[in-house]
TrEMBL record:
Residue intervals of the Transcription factor NikR nickel binding C-terminal domain: 57-132
Gene this chain is encoded by: nikR
Cofactor annotation comment: Binds 1 nickel ion per subunit.
Alphabetized Pfam families for the sequence: NikR_C, RHH_1
Record-level Gene Ontology MF annotations: DNA binding; DNA-binding transcription factor activity; nickel cation binding
BP terms from Gene Ontology: response to nickel cation
Protein family (similarity comment): Belongs to the transcriptional regulatory CopG/NikR family.
Entry keywords, A to Z: DNA-binding, Metal-binding, Nickel, Transcription, Transcription regulation
PANTHER family to which the protein is assigned, alphabetical: NICKEL-RESPONSIVE REGULATOR (PTHR34719)
Family annotation (CDD domains): RHH_NikR_HicB-like (cd22231)
Cofactor(s), names only, from the UniProt record: Ni(2+)
Residues reported in the UniProt entry to bind Ni(2+): H80, H91, H93, C99
Function: Transcriptional regulator.
Protein name: Putative nickel-responsive regulator
Organism expressing this protein natively: Eiseniibacteriota bacterium
Length: 138
């Protein structure tokens, strides 16, 4: 990663600059530059997910009723049957009936998305959300 910084100018209409500054303040950014850098990194990650040329990382969050018959075994079986690498799995008991799992997955975008849909569609899963990320050298 290079530490060289290059300055460039961006022209924006006043109202768009106002929207930008409002977002910078509401999200706690120290500067416009930090916000713009994050927007660019986010787009680079989305581009990696749109391509099958390299592995990416996903974070799948699911909550479910652990009393649903066979559900826990189905979750485990699906994780073992896919062409992805489960890097980490964290299991938390929310209350007597509900569990939360966070599954960090590395693999091809289509395989991660397929696993996410299959896990989210299991009977007893109440919530499922895939957060897309990837290595970003920028």
């Amino acid at each position: 990663m290079s530490t060289d910084i290059i300055r460039f100018t961006v022209s924006l209409p006043v109202n768009l600059l106002g929207e930008l500054d409002d977002r910078i303040i509401s999200k706690g950014y120290a500067s416009r530059s930090e916000f713009v850098r994050d927007l660019i990194r986010e787009q680079l990650i989305l581009d990696k997910w749109a391509s099958e040329s390299e592995e990416v990382v996903g974070v799948l969050t699911i909550s479910y009723d652990h009393h649903q018959q066979g559900l826990v075994q189905n979750i485990i079986d699906l994780q073992h049957s896919r062409l992805v690498h489960i890097l980490c799995n964290t299991h938390v008991h929310l209350n007597h009936n509900n569990c939360l799992e966070v599954i960090i997955i590395r693999g091809r975008p289509s395989e991660i998305e397929k696993l996410s849909l299959e896990l989210g569609g299991l009977k007893g899963v109440k919530f499922s959300k895939l957060t897309r990320t990837a290595g970003c050298d920028a």
